[in-house]
Structures
1.
Amino acid sequence: MDVNALVEPDRVHKTVYTDPEIFDLEMEKIWERIWVYCGHESQVAQAGDYYAVTIGRQPMIMIRQPDKSVQVLYNRCPHRGVQIVGNLKGNTGSSFVCSYHAWSFHLDGSVRAIPLAKGYEGTRMTKDNPDCGMKRAARVASYRGFVFASLVDDGPSLDDFLGEAKIAFDDMCDRSPVGEVEVVPYCHRVMQHSNWKFFMENQLDALHPSVTHQSTGISAGRVEKRLKAESGSAPLYYHYLSTFASSFEQWDAVQTINFPHGHGILKAYMGLRPRDPDTLEYEALLKDAYGEDKCEEYLSRSIHHVLVYPYLSVQSPLQQLRCLRPVAADKTMSEIWHFRLKGAPEAIYRRSLWYYNLVNSPATMINADDLENWSKGQWGLQSKGGDWVSFHRWFGDDREENGVTYSNHGTSEAVMRNQFKAWATYLDGAAA
Amino acid sequence: MSGTKAAIPSAGPDFEHLLAQEVVIEAGEDETRTGAQRVALDHSPRAPLEGAHRSDSLSRLRQRAGVSATPELQQEVEQFLYLQAELLDGKHWQAFIDLFAVDGVYWMPVAPEQTEWEGSPSIFAEDKLMMEIRKGRVSHPNAWSQAPMWETNHLVSHVALEAVSDGEIRVRSRFHMMELRRDDVRHFGGRYLHTLVRDGAGALKIKLQRVDLFNSQAPFDYVLQVWV
């Protein structure tokens, strides 16, 4: 495959969204090589707690060890290949047991017992052969409680892979007076009938909200305005919705910052520092914990979303995380998670919860219209109505410094151009 | 193939004999002998027994069966629930919202163990103002997701009055909603728990409608647009 024939600086060929062979290459050269998010350590709090997770096309198990470390194993019995855990999550006790022939394994995947072991004497499948254990992910590492795995030995470290996008996790955790978050133990899963790239591009696409989400923005703005007229103020969560109907000019003023590896940031636009008593109490806690300067640094970061390309969208100021698990060229599962700031007042959690319930829940008044766009986008790209996808807006206008691209206009398609630069490097094999 | 009879080999008497034989395997102490008995003691890979229908204890179910209501009240409540379902299917959004008391809430929790609508991760957690926003949104000419043909069909059944006091009626029921969107049909099922009150004119109003989807934690193929 000639990547250069598909990805040009200002446009890409439609097949990168639609071709099943390209999808397979993405799985092989991207997902099954790079660091992929498995979950948060608090999802598997006790030894034996597990969570089944898909990395590329590989069924994996994130499992807490007796020594408190977290391991990631292939969900596959080395005997006849049957998957070991059959549920999404649970606690497996002190061992895994295969439901087919009762081979059993320690929590680190090493074999514990083989039934009728005598029958294996003189063969290569005896207990001392490491192939009799469940295979492990080549590398597992975590950053501030967020667990990642890579299925190959080579390639950049997690630190290098995340690069500047580490701010997603720093920004989330620094907002806790003890520097930690814990997972809200529910995961919404939403299937989108479109290529994963639609999601990643959409996250930092600042032109779409006032078009796509105008119905919700206008409706919420009307109620917000009435409340303000009646009682002088409206809860912040009305603004979560009404802000989507901001004007093109307002959106154009919100900058994007685009990093190597396709990662990126959409800067803040919602103003999450009201002066109500809850916020003041919370800020006092942070000042006690970190001192005035650090507290100010943490709370004044201008972040709306951080993208970890090609699969993670982290809204750190509101502790939301969405992770993509691509299923096929035209099918993508998104996992939607929410976190609590440890040690922060309940009111601060509830403020962020409104965003989770209104924008990210399966009854979302926002993503409903995104999903509709992406389905129609997929169908459009499958047609013979044209071959190219355009990323020309503000092409040539962005400012680049040390490999980081800063848009001069929020609506610049610098985001997509930067993502495809990374994509092409991955598929070319030049990057690990 | 022709000429030979398709001979399906018979298991024969030995096999029949084996089928009839009951084999009892004792749990052994010898680790090398077997994996299963040895390690299975604390191993519970099953999904925990939690589900939309599990939150009712047996005693509560029996207690509910003992609640006596007049046939008139039972019928009035049933008709009220059927009306609500018809308003949804007819897309009469304002009339649907009007069924709620001034401080009424529509709540769809994520999991059956949740008890409070405020402060809980939820699928829906809407007071009347939020319902008004949703109504305004789906009625807007540029609500893009509303463009494809879509219809719903609700069935409501198992209407059981759970508690009746002077001020409140708690009624539990089951629903099945089929939804047509574009060319596909989706199914949502589960339970309603309505807490009803009477307004000044004596009409029933919803103080809290709790909706437990039995498939709330399964992947959503697309999302929910309006109340279920």
2.
Amino acid sequence: MALTEKMTDPGVRSTARSPAAKRRRAAKRRRAAETRAGYAFLTPWLLGFVLLTAGPMLASLYLSFTNYNLFAAPKWVGLDNFQLLFHDPRFLQSAKVTVTYVLLGTPVKLISALAVAMLLNNSHRGKGLYRSSFYAPSLIGASVSIAIVWKAMFIDRGIVDQVGQFFGLGAGGWVGNPNMTMPMFILLTVWQFGAPMVIFLAGLKQVPADLYEAASVDGAGSVRKFLSITLPMLSPVLFFNLLLETIHAFQIFASAFIISGGTGGPAGSTLFYTLYLYQRGFVDFRMGYAAAMAWVLVVVVGIITLLFFKTSKFWVHYSGEAK
Amino acid sequence: MSVAGISRGSVTAEPSALRRRRRRNTERVRSVLFHACVVAVLAVVLYPALWMLMSSLKPTADIVGNVSLWPEGASLDNFAKALQGIGGVSFWTFFLNSMILAVASVVGIALSASVSAYAFARIQFAGRSVWFALMIGSLLLPIHVVIIPQYIIFNNLGLVNTFVPLLLGKFLAAEAFFVFLMVQFMRNLPRELDEAARIDGAGHVRIFISIMLPLMKPALVTCSIFAFIWSWNDFLGPLLYLKDPSLYSLPIALRLFVDQTSTSDYGAQMAMAVLALIPVLLFFLIFQRYLVEGVATQGLKG
């Protein structure tokens, strides 16, 4: 900034006392005062960012190249942890479990959210009450309480088992059956469709009604209207929901911990990524290994976010003026 | 109401009245269909929560496998057992710990996030856009990448087994979501107000305290509610940092309770699960508008 000033006005020094120069100097002083005020107000966040986010991130990057057990000094091992990771059957299992959960749970959850949002998007009475009621599970779904309830519902001879037997499914609870734990967790995340539903509803309200009217005049059926109007108009909201829910799903922890008693069993079928990270870091105290796992997660989440933004121009439509 | 009665009426009014009545009828049918559909879905969605509540009133032998919601021989025995606590620590100790953590979180976040958000929203300073980009980036960051070094640091400082590691981040606006929400809110406030105050010679501190804070009440309320509920439900933080049962917050006390009673006492487990959710449910009932609006406008998570 100083450089351009000098270039455009070489006579600054000689005419230091001119009114223009005085004004410039006052503006500069004001800018400096603003910057001081800015950093003063920013202090809490800045401290938090440096001490609790950026610093620890760098520290865990360093730790990921070491062996560290919290007692002896970290020992540099280069890329060993990362090489071990990809030959560790439990790591591969945890990656498989988590990716399956993300790929199945998130779409089902969002489709449910969109379906109920479209059901509620009308002028009938009682809509607000319904909206709040559907939202409630999102508030409590990740809590320990609900994990306990879920376990009690899906256990051997539990209510789901009873109902399943009535419909001819095999006996035995879902909790102890490695093939059924994933559906159980997917149901738990789908149960919390309320938060994305509320966001979808807000998006649906923004779709101009005259678009539908025009489409009706042109003889479009409801499927056509959904595909050609609702989905494109809703795509920014869909983008937001999909990105957030996906990143969120990677980090499921409390429910998996409670339902499996912290083990990730039976047969590793509930060994979610963060659960295995916790076991490595805080049960086995292999903190370098856990840090390497954390960085793999960061890179994966980063790549997914990047992909979302890079592909958004092909499927996200922003109508009207740019946001 | 007979057909004859209608046809005897005014000839010109007849068709339109009929049509209106028919339209009103189809509307009514449609409305009944709508409510029936929604209530059916709602029944399925709310069933687990209701089952938990009702099971907490049933004798243990009558919980597992009992689909019925109606508690036969309802009693508060389970709650009496849950309130006794675990290992000599009363339920109310856990409750108080959770309450201290949640209230302190609310205070910390309301203070730190609003001050920091003011810098982003209202002060032009060198480097602002860089910091803002970093703040947005940290919104999507998985926390697992910071918990290990944080634990090591707090451990070295001898702060494990205190509330400090759980609260420090709240006073330093480490949860960027709250800063982001307040920045968005502040940007929508009219700039004329603070520009007028500036001309009158007010500094940023004055403007923030006497103009911004009062206008930010809705954002502060939304943030406070979510701060409370997230702190109340937090499991990983207390699991890492609280080792002494007398410091346990409710979620990890609940976990200890489940581990100790194993499969034997579902009644008491359900009762304690219900008790642990009561403050969240109260917040929900009182502030549901704020909560749902907050989610709708900001995309906050539950």
